[in-house]
């Protein structure tokens, strides 16, 4: 297939990129390749009850950058955060025009949930986006088509290889420019709820780090993988806590009812988690959000809010016959994730969202350097990437590789076809990977702590699992996809371990707690930890901070 722009992933950033490209140039040919179905795919599949990146009255793009910088302990790409902040309100108005219900007060103003957040009824936000994309005559959506690698011609990305999960068709999709919007990585670590309920996790379980892995294999520079994200969530349901903390101003309290966060320092996002872990370690748990005594109206609001995005929490209250008015909500940390929408992990990009691979752009959770972008930030980044991709490809022709190269890739995938053999199953490899990462690379069981020796063990075990995975077999395209997903996760684990080992300090407690270097060290580590995989080895690259008005380009 051929297109002017290929978009990999039909989530928030991917959909908005397609809408932007089509609006800017109605003649442009756009293909979205989505491994699920665009109507309910990605992180917004179940809905969302707030837009957590919005410039409310009294705030500005500049103050938003300062907030993100402070919460991220100084390690952000200010230029990227600023260009996102400048677009937040514009993309919010656009998504409202597409039909998203945004709550308003009697004066017609958006109802704020915090300084940088507004309330919405967002259970159908993904179908709204999918409907808007589906109405564009120049956009083709390939549902149930799994992208597996970039097509690289000399030093330029000219498209991607993929295969259909329904028909088993192999695709070579050529494009003048390619946008990766495939999301971050879940499932690397042993989850809170193993076994039957392992899907109850913070991040979309079908985001397997494929977008990262494709870039890693192609030699793209990556950034910030050591800045993991670990969510503070409602126990068992893994429902969001911000809905309660901001919605009814519920403080965090320990088992004795004492507020504890401020004992540990300024209440940044990582510290709210870290303080909870430490209270439990000290024997003062369990820890809660203090909701006892809230009003009936507030309780009713919480029931409705969770039905918008995490119905398991509302169902739990109803089944127990005891809501948040009668009982505080217990909280816990999740397993770690690699995600560029909440922390800084992802492709190393410039202001145009161009990666270090020519012809490849990145947007949303897969793009690094700009934490706390959330939904609207992903829209903004999708817009920037689409405009940049249009500009990049306007004078280019389509490139193609030899049919022999395509046949080679088909053979590489087809070799996984066959009956499962012995203990070599995807589930066995996945459990092995999650156990290794949990015990040796700072998972839940160790209180998120790791050290150099443990990371070395983790690296060896991940290499062994990668070798074992070459013997995996599947009987149909869906099972082949599962095999390739575990290979992608292992690829991401390898780079994550290298980043954790490289940053010799503790900058974000719990997110990145290095037992060998337990203190923050601004003298030596106020910089980015980047990497590039070459000849099978992960090479670490340290780069200086990029300021808000600095024009960073990929020069060295």
How would you characterize this protein structure?
The protein is an alpha/beta fold. Among the domains are: 232-333, Succinate dehydrogenase/fumarate reductase flavoprotein, catalytic domain (Flavocytochrome C3, Chain A, domain 1), CATH 3.90.700.10; 419-523, Fumarate reductase/succinate dehydrogenase flavoprotein-like, C-terminal domain (Methane Monooxygenase Hydroxylase, Chain G, domain 1, Up-down Bundle), CATH 1.20.58. 36% of the residues lie in helices and 17% in strands. The chain is built from 16 helices and 20 strands. It has helices spanning 12-24, 61-71, 78-85, 88-97, 125-134, 210-218, 242-247, 269-281, 296-309, 311-320, 374-393, 403-414, 426-440, 452-469, 477-502, 522-525; strands at 2-8, 30-34, 48-51, 112-114, 117-122, 139-143, 145-153, 156-164, 170-180, 222-223, 232-234, 252-253, 288-289, 329-333, 346-347, 360-362, 449-450, 513-514, 528-534, 537-543. The strands form five sheets. Strands 1, 2, 6, 7, 8, 9 and 16 form a seven-stranded mixed sheet that branches. The protein has a four-stranded antiparallel sheet with strand order 15-10-19-20. The protein has a four-stranded antiparallel sheet with strand order 11-14-13-12. Helix 1 (12-24) links the parallel strand 1 and strand 2. Helix 2 (61-71) crosses helix 3, helix 13 packs antiparallel against helix 14 and helix 13 runs parallel beside helix 15 (477-502). The protein is globular.
């Amino acid at each position: 297939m051929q297109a002017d722009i290929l978009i990999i992933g039909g989530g928030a950033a991917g959909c908005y990129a397609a809408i932007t490209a089509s609006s800017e140039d109605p003649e442009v040919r756009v293909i979205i390749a989505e491994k699920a179905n665009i109507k309910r795919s990605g992180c917004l599949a179940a809905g969302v009850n707030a837009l957590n990146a919005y410039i409310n009255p009294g705030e500005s793009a500049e103050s938003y950058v300062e907030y993100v910088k402070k919460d991220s302990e100084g390690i952000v790409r200010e230029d990227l955060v600023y260009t996102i902040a400048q677009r937040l309100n514009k993309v919010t108005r656009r998504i409202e025009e597409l039909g998203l219900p945004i709550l308003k007060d009697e004066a017609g103003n958006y109802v704020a949930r915090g300084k940088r957040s507004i309330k919405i009824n967002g259970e159908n936000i993904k179908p709204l986006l999918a409907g808007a994309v589906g109405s564009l005559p120049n956009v083709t959506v390939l549902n149930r088509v799994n992208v597996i690698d970039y097509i690289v011609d000399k030093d330029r990305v000219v498209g991607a290889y993929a295969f259909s999960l329904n028909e088993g068709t192999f695709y070579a999709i050529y494009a003048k420019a390619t946008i990766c919007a495939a999301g971050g990585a879940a499932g690397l670590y042993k989850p809170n709820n193993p076994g039957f309920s392992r899907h109850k996790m913070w991040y979309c379980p079908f985001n397997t780090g494929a977008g990262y892995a494709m870039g890693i294999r192609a030699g793209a520079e990556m950034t910030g993988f050591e800045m993991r994200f670990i969510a503070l969530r409602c126990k068992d349901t893994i429902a969001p806590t911000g809905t309660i903390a901001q919605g009814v101003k519920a403080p965090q309290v320990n088992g004795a009812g004492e507020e504890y966060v401020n004992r540990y320092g300024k209440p940044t996002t990582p510290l709210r988690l870290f303080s909870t872990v430490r209270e439990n370690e000290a024997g003062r748990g369990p820890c809660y959000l203090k909701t006892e005594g809230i009003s009936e109206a507030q309780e009713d609001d919480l029931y409705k809010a969770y039905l918008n995005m995490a119905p398991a929490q509302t169902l739990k209250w109803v089944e127990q016959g005891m809501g948040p008015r009668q009982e505080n909500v217990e909280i816990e940390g999740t397993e770690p994730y690699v995600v560029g929408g909440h922390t800084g992990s992802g492709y190393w990009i410039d202001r145009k969202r161009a990666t270090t691979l020519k012809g490849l752009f990145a947007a949303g959770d897969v793009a690094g350097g700009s934490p706390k972008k959330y939904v609207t930030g992903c829209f903004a980044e999708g817009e920037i990437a689409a405009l940049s991709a249009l500009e990049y490809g306007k004078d280019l022709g389509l490139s193609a590789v030899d049919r022999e190269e395509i046949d080679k890739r088909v053979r590489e995938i087809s070799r996984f076809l066959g009956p499962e053999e012995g203990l070599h199953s995807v589930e066995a490899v996945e459990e092995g990977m999650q156990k290794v990462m949990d015990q040796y690379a700072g998972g839940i069981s160790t209180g998120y702590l790791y050290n150099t020796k443990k990371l070395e063990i983790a690296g060896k075990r991940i290499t062994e699992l990668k070798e074992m995975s070459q013997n995996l077999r599947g009987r149909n395209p869906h099972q082949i996809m599962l095999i390739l997903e575990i290979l992608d996760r292992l690829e991401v684990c390898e780079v994550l371990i290298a980043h954790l080992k490289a940053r010799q300090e503790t900058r974000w407690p719990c997110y990145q707690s290095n037992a060998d270097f337990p203190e923050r060290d601004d003298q030596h580590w106020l910089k980015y930890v980047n990497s590039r995989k070459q000849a099978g080895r992960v090479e670490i690259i340290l780069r200086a901070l990029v300021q808000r008005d600095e024009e960073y380009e990929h020069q060295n």
